[in-house]
Amino acid sequence: MKETKQIAIIGLGYVGLPLAIEFAKKYKVVGFDIDKKRINELQTGVDLTQEANLDQLKAVLSSNEGNGLSFSNDLTDLIDCNIYIITVPTPVDHLKAPDLKPLLNASAMIGSILKKQDIVIYESTVYPGCTEEDCVPVLTQYSGLKFNEDFFCGYSPERINPGDKVNTLTKIKKVTSGSTPAIAIEIDRLYGSIISAGTHLAPSIKVAEASKAIENAQRDVNISFVNELALIFDRMNIDTSDVLAAAATKWNFLNYKPGLVGGHCIGVDPYYLTHKSEALGYKPEVILSGRRVNDNMGLFVANKVVKMMIAKDKAIKNSKVLILGIAFKENCPDTRNTKVIDICTELTSFGIEVGVFDPWADKDKVRNEYGITLLDKVPNEKFDAIILAVAHHAFKEINYAAFRDNGAIIFDTKSFVDRSLVDARL
């Protein structure tokens, strides 16, 4: 392994920032992001993602021990680095096709400053083959260097779980890989120096890429199964949670829960795998059918609530519905690819006035991305329906009985609230 390592982390979101902090405890690290506002916040110890341990962040920012962390949006500050770790987003576009623009732009940027013997490691979720077939040519083009002679690559898929303060970066085993056997070992040792849970050295970059893709595709398919069960049991007037509780008494039953499937991984990553599969001539039926089920759950919730309102002789047009939560999961501010927006859009199409409250979400981001102005608090007024969309702990304290007494229908998508307080649940 190189005796002196200077690491650049490209992209300081939910993945990059925790990684930068951990590496900075042992190495000199520059955290880079094109968002100047984000850089300014981090330099003052502010992290709006709430993923960083702020005490650790401040410690590595002030380190004088030859290691430590600095932040920059100036590419020239990365020139002295010899290991570049790219953690930029890899979303899908409106047609559910992989959007590699952030990844390829980052590759071009790093390629422009790449030096002989440098290593570029990708953590962004991609389809198998993307690193070597899509990213390496960009690095080669912009650097003028030869792959696996002058520079080298690796892939180590991120496994960050936003909002999880137990299964944090160092406590989750890390899959590693490299473009040559020697580089693979070097990269594995690098991550092994900070990951207490250990590492798993994959035999190739493509295997490591595929492992990430199937992790989330597997969860997506399993959740789609219970979501489809929820659709079936709704027609049978059976409570899905009761069925799952009974089935879970068998030792080998996988107890997944129905719900909205959004976020940066489960709702996105399967499309990367299916894209590559279809490019090779095979249409993956199971994965795509699971995606269809999960993508339609927001519409089901909205239409179910409208039907419940009609059954209680409520006028639909100009009625008022309060949605609790817009983050893609509980107790975190992450609103990426949230499926709560599908509920909002469908209800609005009926002429319903929709209000959304989420104490975790960033108001400016929600307004800019989704065009929704979040409420400052739970309004003390009459609603025709309330939809609990996200199981934030804070929502346990809401007086649902008072809203019901005032005529509100309460629908719980998470089976989070006491059953006696809700009219229906998913």
Strand segment count: 13
Strand content: 5-15%
CATH topology of the largest domain: Rossmann fold
Order of neighbouring strands in the sheet with most strands? 3-2-1-4-5-6
Termini gap: 52 Å
Mean pLDDT: 95
Query: Globular, elongated, flat, extended or rod-shaped: what is the shape?
Result: globular
What is the CA-atom radius of gyration, in angstroms?
23 Å
In which range does the helix fraction lie?
Answer: 25-40%
CATH class of the largest domain: Alpha Beta
- Structural class, from helix and strand content? alpha/beta
Write the layout of secondary structure elements.
Layout: E1 6-10, H1 16-24, E2 28-32, H2 36-43, H3 54-61, E3 68-72, E4 83-86, H4 101-111, E5 119-122, H5 130-143, E6 152-155, E7 174-176, H6 181-192, E8 199-201, H7 205-236, H8 240-247, H9 269-279, H10 285-295, H11 297-311, E9 320-324, H12 340-349, E10 353-357, H13 363-370, E11 385-388, H14 400-405, E12 409-412, E13 424-425
Parallel strand pairs: 1-2, 1-4, 2-3, 4-5, 5-6, 7-8, 9-10, 9-11, 11-12, 12-13
How would you sum up this structure, described in words?
- The protein has 426 residues and is an alpha/beta fold.
- Helices cover 38% and strands 12% of the residues.
- The chain has 14 helices and 13 strands.
- The strands form three sheets. It has a six-stranded parallel β-sheet, sandwiched between helices. Strands 10-9-11-12-13 form a five-stranded parallel β-sheet.
- Strand 11, helix 14 and strand 12 form a beta-alpha-beta unit.
- Helix 7 crosses helix 9, helix 7 crosses helix 10 and helix 11 crosses helix 12.
- The chain starts with 5 loop residues before the first strand and ends with a strand.
- 43% of the residues are buried.
